[in-house]
From TrEMBL, chain A:
Domain of life the protein comes from: Bacteria
Name of the protein in its database record: Transcriptional regulator
Protein's organism: Streptomyces adustus
TrEMBL record, chain B:
Organism annotation: Streptomyces adustus
InterPro entries referenced in this protein's UniProt entry, alphabetically: Cro/C1-type_HTH, Lambda_DNA-bd_dom_sf
Sequence segments annotated as region (Disordered): 38-61, 85-125, 161-192
Compositional bias segments (type: Low complexity): 171-185
Compositional bias per record (Polar residues), positions renumbered to this chain: 38-50
Protein name: Helix-turn-helix transcriptional regulator
UniProt domain HTH cro/C1-type: residue ranges: 27-79
Length: 190, 537
């Protein structure tokens, strides 16, 4: 299985795309505000993060939070509260800005001055596959030295670029890399 | 009568077969002269593999046998002469004579004599000696030679023979291989062999395992010019990365990889940033409800290195898998949702699942479950078996951290024996911080095994429970069992537990008396105010 899967899950295998697992792990490492935006505490924390400096305000505007300064002030003071649509906007802007801010530091941590980071690839879940169709897919580890493209694609929230960047690394697993296009988990730490 | 003439000729040609030295010796003789197999084969006009066959047991026959015998004879004589030279110049002639006497000298005696007699180069009177018009390869060294003796081209001067291509071996007499031993130099040296281990593409002696702990301590002390406090502080700071490096080192060549970032089920994830996950570690926090009337001298015992010992536990290797049903596979380990059995012995023994207030099912770890199953077994029969509802388990081994634990324990024992406080503190920091940062800690990002963290802690608590049970079994009265390593007993505990600082021993934390009026109170008089302050948990 040297190539990408065409019809994944036809026989009951479970898993997510490798790049989604990577994005999930990078999200975990980025350390977002844990309280949801629907709670007042979570909203305030996000708004503070997005309005602390002029730079942050400009980044938030670029990320799509195009409300007036007056509205922002009203949200912060609690005289008005954002609509559900605006809450989503705040959440999306917050995640985008946070990713952008973290990306450079995260890249440096993961590259470790060229030594790279060991990545564990946990294979797809075959427990729902008929016994004759099950295959031996082992737990694999991989040292990824260049994270720049991966983290940049993740920061830009570009699924396609992230997939390409990740597959470029996964092909180093050898001719069987197609078995690791879908995984249960990709583990690494920064 | 021509018939008789032919018979005479046949009789004359029928000679006794030349005697060859044993097969093992032949190779040694050839190699002793630094001759290669093809060189000899060329001189004898056979193929190199034939020579190899002769050296490994086959015997040549016919004319070539005599040639080979002649070569071996000459080689033996030459080696013996070299040995004699190296041993000492005195008695040179005698030893050469001895060599000649030893040599099997019926047919080839004079030829051998002509060959090795460096003392008499003008052997022109020898009837077998010819001068060759075209130089031919010498039978001994393969280089062109201008003389032949009995039909064999060769150099007359041994120095000339050895000089051109192959340098004469200048080995001392002792290292000239004795013929019988040289075939397999290492076969019969079992006892004094060197134990080796694989190291990358090479091997290295097993004794040369670097002692990482000792080296770190030595370096820190050297760096801080012997300032013990500064060195200790520096070592404590690097305890976590050092522990991880030691773990990596001890897993080298191991059967299982350490899976550091598995997917974890939600029960092992914290509900909030500061919250706990759903696993109940069964930490004991038990005080005996009442003591018999009278005055009691209570001793607070402290288990040494409780977490260090608890590193030996059944740890799941890979990712945890879900299963449902009331069966326990002893080859797997993980966390289990159980309904704990009722505990009716709270008056004199702590509950093995600890001080749980909420009723109903709870997630416990493998050591707690095994403790409960063992207590429910026929040997103890202290409670009903727990009911298992569901499990997250993986194939388990007790050996995963065993080498790591033994390395730390050995370093600890050595430090205690040498009274080396720096190493002791360093080792303690290593295992304590290792256990506390195994999970989702920001201080150790190399290992995210929350399940192991819970299992190791629970193992420490289970170990403490067994100590309490042992005290009870031996007739002591258990007053308290709390924390990881603290056990309060009355009675002659020295008959039950050894006192000391080793991991199998206990030490006294405190002794106090409890008054005569029944319920336990710490208001009694303290006999020894906190005799030892150190806590090695």
């Amino acid at each position: 299985m040297p190539e990408r899967n065409i019809e994944f899950g036809r026989y009951g295998a479970g898993g997510i795309k490798g790049h989604q697992a990577v994005a999930r792990q990078l999200d975990a490492l980025a350390g977002y505000i844990a309280t949801p935006v629907t709670a007042r505490r979570g909203l305030l924390a996000r708004l503070h993060y997005l309005t602390r400096t002029d730079h942050a305000r400009a980044a938030a505007r670029a990320a799509g939070l195009t409300v007036t300064a007056r509205t922002l002030r009203a949200w912060l003071q609690g005289t008005r509260s954002p609509s559900r649509k605006n809450l989503e906007l705040v959440e999306r802007a917050y995640r985008t800005v946070r990713r952008e801010n973290v990306a450079r530091h995260l890249t440096a941590r993961l590259n470790r001055e060229g030594r790279g980071t060991r990545v564990e690839i946990h294979p797809l879940n075959q427990s729902q596959v008929d016994r004759p169709r099950q295959r031996v897919v082992e737990f694999r580890t991989l040292n990824v030295r260049r994270w720049d493209r991966i983290v940049a694609a993740w920061a830009a929230d570009d699924d396609r670029a992230l997939d390409d960047a990740w597959i470029d690394q996964v092909v180093d697993l050898g001719s069987q890399w197609g078995q690791y296009e879908y995984v249960t988990n990709v583990g690494f730490a920064a | 009568m021509t018939d008789f003439g032919a018979i005479d000729a046949l009789l004359a040609s029928a000679r006794q077969e030349a005697v060859l030295p044993p097969a093992g010796e032949r190779r040694a003789l050839r190699e002793g002269l630094n001759l290669s197999r093809p060189q000899l084969a060329q001189a004898l006009n056979v193929s190199p593999s034939t020579v190899g066959g002769w050296e490994s047991g086959r015997d040549p026959s016919g004319e070539v046998r005599e040639k080979y015998a002649y070569f071996l004879e000459g080689a033996k004589a030459k080696l013996a002469a070299e040995t004699a030279d190296a041993v000492g110049d005195a008695g040179d002639e005698e030893s050469q004579d001895e060599v000649r006497a030893d040599a099997d000298a019926d047919a080839d005696a004079d030829a051998a004599d002509a060959f090795h007699s460096a003392a008499e180069p003008e052997a022109g009177q020898d009837d077998d000696l010819d001068v060759l018009a075209v130089p031919q390869p010498c039978v001994l060294c393969g280089q062109p030679a201008c003389h032949q003796v009995a039909g064999f081209p060769q150099h007359l001067d041994p120095a000339e023979c050895a000089a051109p291509g192959s340098p004469r071996p200048t080995v001392p007499a002792a290292s000239v291989p004795a013929p019988s031993e040289s075939a397999r130099p290492s076969a019969d040296r079992g006892g004094q062999g060197v134990r080796i281990v694989a190291a990358g593409r090479r091997v290295r002696p097993a004794d040369a395992e670097p002692d990482l702990i000792h080296r770190a301590v030595t370096e820190a002390l050297a760096q801080h010019a012997g300032d013990v406090e500064a060195a200790s502080a520096a070592l404590l700071k690097r305890a976590i990365p050092d522990a991880m490096a030691l773990l990596d080192h001890t897993r080298r060549g191991g059967r299982y990889d350490i899976v550091a970032h598995p997917w974890l089920p939600d029960i092992l994830r914290k509900q909030s940033a500061r919250g706990a996950d759903q696993v109940w570690e069964a930490r004991p926090k038990w005080t005996r409800p009442e003591l018999p009337p009278g005055e009691h001298a209570v001793t607070a015992l402290d288990v040494n290195g409780a977490y260090l010992s608890a590193l030996k536990t059944h740890l799941p290797i890979g990712q945890l898998e879900h299963s449902v049903g009331d069966d326990h596979d002893r080859r797997r380990a993980g966390v289990h949702l159980i309904t704990p059995p009722d505990w009716e012995h709270d008056a004199y023994l702590p509950n093995p699942i600890g001080n749980r207030d909420e009723p109903g099912p709870l997630w416990v770890t493998e050591p707690t479950l095994r403790l409960l199953l063992r207590l429910a077994g026929p040997k103890y029969g202290l409670c009903d078996p727990p009911r298992i509802h569901e499990s997250w388990t993986s194939g388990a081994t007790e050996q995963l951290l065993e080498k790591f634990r033994v390395a730390l324990k050995d370093a600890r024992d050595r430090a205690i024996a040498d009274d080396d406080e720096v190493t002791l503190e360093y080792v303690k920091a290593m295992y304590a911080k290792f256990v506390s940062t195994l999970g989702e800690s920001n201080y150790n990002r190399e290992l995210y095994r929350t399940d192991w963290m819970h299992l190791i802690r629970s193992q420490a608590f289970a170990n403490l429970w067994w100590k309490a049970h042992r005290a009870y079994d031996e007739g002591l009265m258990v007053v308290r069992a709390m924390g990881t390593d603290e056990l309060h007993v009355t009675g002659d505990w020295r008959a039950v537990f050894a006192e000391g600082r080793g991991v199998t021993e206990v030490k006294v934390k405190d002794t106090y008396t409890v008054g005569t009026d029944g319920p336990l109170s710490r208001a009694g008089t303290v006999i020894h105010p906190s005799s030892t302050g150190r806590d090695d948990a």
